[in-house]
Design brief:
The chain has 120 residues and is mainly alpha-helical. The chain has five helices and no strands. It is flat.
Amino acid sequence: MALLLVVLLQGLSGLFVSDDVMFEGPLMFWGGDWSGFFAQWHEVNWIALQVLVVGHLLAVGYHQLYRKEPLIGAMWWGKTERRFSLSKPRNANLAVGIALIIAGLLVLLITLAPQAPSYY
């Protein structure tokens, strides 16, 4: 959950930052005085994201190699022989619907963002 939260925060903070050279987030001009805060958060969060990814890979490697749990195969195929559930899995349409709603809201937010001033 921490890894997913950090990825979400990285994406959200990136919408409001500018590197003052080549990239400006689509919502940078909405950030106002907060753009500096979002830029700092984006940089610190990047380090946290790297640490969590390495920790995740080490944990998967530990379970795969030392505990002999076939996690990589279970993640790839979505099932394993060792574990089972008494309840049926949820329908994937709910996840697709939520993803489409979030994508639609993001597109709407980006289209409503003020245009960046032209420097050329």
